[in-house]
Design brief:
Two copies of one chain form a homodimer.
Chain A lengths: L1 H5 L9 E7 L5 E7 L1 H10 L3 E4 L4 E4 L8 E8 L6 E7 L14 E4 L4 E4 L7 H5 L3
Parallel strand pairs in A: 1-6
Antiparallel strand pairs in A: 1-2, 3-4, 5-6, 7-8
């Protein structure tokens, strides 16, 4: 595991951006940050873990919602400073209830971003459980 | 244009990460950073422009290699702090000659990243022209 971590270039805050993509549809689901511990936990468990910069803690994606992401493949870019994970996504990746966090598309005519994604769950129901 | 820029949350350095995805194959090609000017130039020209943190300048992707990326769709995530561009990629996105910058895949058996991408051009030939 230490060998793998050593190959990755972390930024000055000890973090690396991680892109998460649906392994089947290839839809880009989200982008978040990982520290070495998040990567180690992710590889050890097969479930995506991230580092929250606001809460300053490690988190298991889907811990509250049960919408976990099971790792199918892991890629590192040419500069070794960005990771790409292909995953099997349960439910939706976005805390607002959408399949992907990228549910707002630029509409050039309107000069604004408009919602194009469809909700796959009700965040009110999912997150008030805790 | 100002309305669009206002919707995006830039980090303390005035930058936002941008994921670039092939609009047809949905392959993730690269991740780079944009400032407001890079976004404005990209939307005005339809060609991806980024901000180089090391060179501290705006750059047109493909300026040297001619491997430009034509914008097909633009998405903003739930937190409005990450952009996703679907593009038509000419040649290869990676300066090392690969179609995608994510050409190294984690091989769990070997405990290392191994090259899985195929070269689509010879970087020696492309970049020594200048």
């Amino acid at each position: 595991m230490a060998d793998i971590i050593r190959k990755i270039k972390f930024n000055s805050a000890g973090l690396v951006p991680a892109i998460v993509q649906d392994s089947q549809t290839r839809e880009v689901l989200m982008m978040a940050y990982m520290n070495a511990e998040a990567i180690e936990k992710t590889l050890a468990t097969g479930k995506m873990h991230f580092y929250s910069r606001s809460r300053k803690t490690l988190w298991l994606k889907g811990e509250t919602s049960s919408h976990i992401q099971e790792v199918r493949a892991v890629f590192l870019d040419c500069d070794s400073d960005t990771l790409l994970f292909q995953v099997s996504q349960r439910g939706g990746a976005c805390h607002e209830g959408y399949r992907t966090c990228f549910f707002k598309q630029l509409n050039s005519d309107k000069g604004d971003f408009t919602i194009v994604g469809e909700k796959v769950f009700d965040p009110e129901k999912i997150y008030r459980k805790k």
